């Protein structure tokens, strides 16, 4: 592990992987915030101490809660592949400047994507940020396979 932490590309990957992980982890509290402020719960035990009438009002879907959940789901679909591809890419010995561009662009695109999703920015802002992040991951995969392709 000490040797890996001497590798500047790996340290950069670890930094940006930690940033997007924290961003993804924040989606849970964001969803909870919307659940509480919008009075929208999905589980019976969440409203167990309420009256039957209150339960009917609280056990319902709310668009803001669903939006936060979809944003979190989208993070899972994009950040998990970034971890695997990014780790292998970092270990393949890329140029530090090129690696930093990949990691920074991906991280910025995911942060912007979350704001665009939660705050309902007009399209194509969310779609473009999604596409930029996805293309960045594909670019790392291409560079990785170009470097280490063995069959």
UniProtKB/TrEMBL annotation:
Subcellular location, record wording: Endoplasmic reticulum membrane; Mitochondrion outer membrane
Keyword Endoplasmic reticulum (UniProt): yes
GO MF terms held by the record: glutathione transferase activity
Keyword Endoplasmic reticulum assigned: yes
InterPro entries: MAPEG-like_dom_sf (IPR023352), Membr-assoc_MAPEG (IPR001129), MGST1-like (IPR040162)
SUPFAM superfamilies found in the cross-reference section: MAPEG domain-like (SSF161084)
Coiled coil: none
Transmembrane intervals: 12-34, 82-106, 127-145
Domain of life, per lineage: Eukaryota
Stretch forming the signal peptide: none
Reaction equations catalysed: RX + glutathione = an S-substituted glutathione + a halide anion + H(+)
Assigned GO CC terms: endoplasmic reticulum membrane; mitochondrial outer membrane
Oligomer and partners: Homotrimer; The trimer binds only one molecule of glutathione.
The protein's role, per its UniProt record: Conjugation of reduced glutathione to a wide number of exogenous and endogenous hydrophobic electrophiles.
Protein name per UniProt: Microsomal glutathione S-transferase 1
